[in-house]
Design brief:
- The chain has 661 residues and is mainly alpha-helical.
- The chain folds into 3 domains: 188 residues; 159 residues, no CATH class; 159 residues, no CATH class.
- Helices cover 58% and strands 0% of the residues.
- The longest helix has 20 residues.
- This is Mediator of RNA polymerase II transcription subunit 23.
């Protein structure tokens, strides 16, 4: 306060600078003692009031004096630097229109920010960017000093030598706030921010694979599924799981739908797809992106069928694009079975994508794929899950006249009649649920249905010839035991012959462990097995396993029929039925045969695994290897020929494993 007498004689008074500095020191001491006795909350309120008072100063020198007092409180550890910086940035008076206050405040922040921890610096950086957004984009002379003061603070934070905030944290915050490298807080700061991000470009290249988006993995069944870290994708977006918010190449940040589709198209890709998307069997997690790609593969197959110039059936008895549709059905069954995909959603998505498009040539193959899943799961799921298939039927089968009965000597007939088989399964399910789907077999499928009804009659003789009538019956009636038992029995008789009822030969005519070889020698062809639905194949393999176990337990010295052994070998290759197939072989069949001391049967099974079984996944091979190890230790197996067979099988298993397994 200036005394009246000082004011009157101001022109002749001599001011002593020492007394000025003494005054400032006194104020500083009083302010320090006042602030040091306050709680943190009270200090915060006091600083806010102090800033409001400073903002009201019209004298620039006094403003500088007040803020220097505040700075001194920080340097003398009376007030924490972070608290003062945050109070400044949150102050309502901090507006670019108050030029002196704005500039001096950011100068103060620049001086004291070195005492703030890195988390606090990160918040201050965010606050600076927010304040930058309040400055108009059209700069004139009145605003340049404000922006320069703000820019100085951000530059100091970005200075790696200042060690205020790790550069990685800075680039992460920038990438989060401005992921597309646009819409910077102010164009004047754009160069500063973008240059800092670009400085991490080399780091991004070091921790990523150059050209990764153009590469494709080698997909195989030999167990490298766990070694696919570079191919891991986000379950929702299908983007690469890249570490950190670094400036990666744009191609690496795009959804990798083509990569997932490529892997899905490959055989033995199920485990790899699950590993790529982080899907686990224990957790039922639906993956929409996976569903979409399965639908896309179906549509691509339909388009390919429409433009196909090849004959509808190949020389080997397989339908055109046979393996494409076979693979699609296998993938669909697996991913829906483990709840990674939803069957009704897939069917409706296919319907929506085919609506308005004239893609009819592949319709029978599509229905064959859907029949594979429906026949095996309709008994365990409500009818409503499968009714969307009827919408697909209405779209793809617009004919008014009945479709002719196809040539049942060709494998194609099982695909052409797949839609009729689906209707039969749906009607049987509706009957068991005592519900009504209000739609009988359509007039379009009348002849197909009558043909199957005639075949299934008890007075019709069933014998496995070179045609596919038995396969058609199995496919249509696999959920109806009343009609299913006859065609299945005909299939089993084909590979067992009369062996089921043969009497055991006198033991004395045979030496040691010798067995009589008899029975059919011609196995079921691959085209016949391919033409059966998964549900029918599971019934067939169950019958074969039951027969082998019964034969082993009865101590029969009759060798297994060659046709049965070869057919069983062929069935074990189908991945869709591995629970009854290879899993049952290792966990049920081998132990039972060994326990029954049926050495001849055991020998046959080991020979079968050595010479006829390919494409078996490594974990099954290792499991069998441990079984053989325990077999070899049992005294009863100490028979030279059998022991050599066990040893040979074990060696084949070991040499068949890859280096990563």
């Amino acid at each position: 306060k200036v005394e009246a007498i000082e004011e009157a004689f101001s022109c002749v008074l001599v001011h002593h600078p020492n007394s000025e500095s003494e005054k400032i020191t006194t104020w500083q001491t009083e302010l320090s003692s006042a602030m040091s006795n306050l709680t943190k909350e009270q200090q915060e309120n006091a600083v806010k009031q102090f800033l409001c008072m400073a903002a009201a100063m019209t004298n620039h020198r006094r403003l500088q004096l007040l803020l220097s007092l505040l700075e001194n409180l920080v340097t003398s550890n009376v007030l924490p630097a972070r608290l003062v910086c945050e109070c400044i940035l949150n102050c309502d008076k901090l507006q670019y229109q108050l030029e002196d206050f704005w500039v001096e405040c950011f100068v103060l922040i620049r001086h004291i920010i070195g005492g703030v921890d890195y988390k606090g610096v990160r918040e201050i950086m965010k606050g600076c960017k927010e304040k930058a957004q309040t400055i108009p984009s059209r700069l004139d002379a009145s605003v340049q000093s404000q922006l320069k003061a703000l820019e100085n603070v951000i530059e100091y934070i970005f200075d790696r030598n200042a060690c205020l905030l790790p550069g990685y944290f800075i680039v992460t915050e920038i990438q989060k706030a401005y992921p597309d490298g646009k819409h910077w807080p102010h164009w004047k700061l754009a160069k500063l921010l973008s240059n800092f991000v670009e400085s991490f470009r080399n780091t991004a290249q070091m921790v990523s694979i150059v050209g990764h988006s153009k590469m494709l993995p080698v997909v195989e069944h030999t167990g490298y599924a766990d070694l696919i870290n570079p191919w891991v994708l986000d379950t929702t977006t299908l983007k690469f799981s890249l570490k950190g918010n670094l400036p990666y190449d744009e191609d690496l940040l795009k959804p990798q739908t083509e990569l997932l589709r490529y892997v899905l198209e490959q055989p033995y890709s199920r485990d790899m797809v699950c590993s790529m998307l982080g899907l686990q069997k224990q957790q039922k997690q639906r993956c929409i992106a996976l569903e979409e790609q399965l639908v896309e593969l179906v549509i691509l197959a339909m388009e390919r069928a429409e433009n196909e110039t090849l004959p509808a059936e190949g020389t080997d008895g397989t339908v055109a694009n046979h393996y494409v549709w076979l693979h699609l059905s296998s993938q669909l069954i697996y991913f829906v079975l483990f709840s990674y995909a939803c069957f009704p959603s897939i069917v409706m998505a296919i319907h929506d994508k085919l609506a308005g498009r004239d893609l009819r040539k592949g319709r029978d193959h599509l229905m064959w794929v859907l029949l594979q899943f429906i026949s095996g799961s309709i008994q365990r799921n409500p009818l409503s899950n499968f009714l969307p298939v009827l919408k697909l039927y209405d779209l793809l089968y617009p004919e008014k006249e009945p479709l002719p009965v196809p040539d049942y000597t060709r494998a194609l007939c099982t695909h052409q009649m797949a839609i009729t088989c689906i209707w039969i399964h749906l009607l049987k399910k509706a009957q068991s649920e005592h519900s009504n789907i209000h739609r009988p077999i359509p007039h379009t499928l009348k002849l197909h249905h009558e043909f199957l009804q005639h075949l299934v009659m008890p007075n019709t003789s069933l014998c496995m010839g070179s045609d596919y009538r038995i396969a058609l019956l199995c496919n249509a009636y696999s959920t109806n035991q009343e009609y299913f038992s006859r065609p299945m029995a005909a299939l089993v008789d084909t590979i067992l012959g009369t062996q089921k009822g043969q009497q055991q030969q006198p033991m004395q005519t045979l030496q040691n462990n010798a067995a009589l070889a008899s029975g059919p020698t011609t196995p079921l062809s691959m085209s016949i097995l391919d033409s059966l639905t998964v549900h029918s194949k599971m019934s067939l393999i169950h019958s074969i396993v039951s027969h082998v176990i019964k034969s082993a337990q009865s101590k029969s010295n009759m060798a297994l029929a060659p046709a049965l052994v070869e057919t069983y070998s062929r069935l074990l290759v189908y991945t869709e039925i591995e629970s009854l197939g290879i899993k049952g072989f290792i966990s049920q069949l081998l132990p039972t045969v060994f326990k029954s001391h049926a050495w001849g049967t055991l020998y046959t099974l080991l020979e079968m695994f050595s010479y006829r079984m390919h494409h078996i996944q490594p974990h099954y091979r290792v499991q069998l290897l441990s079984h053989l190890h325990s077999l070899a230790a049992v005294p009863q197996t100490n028979q030279t020929q059998l022991h050599l067979c066990v040893e040979s099988t074990a060696l084949r298993l070991i040499t068949g494993l890859g280096s990563a397994e």
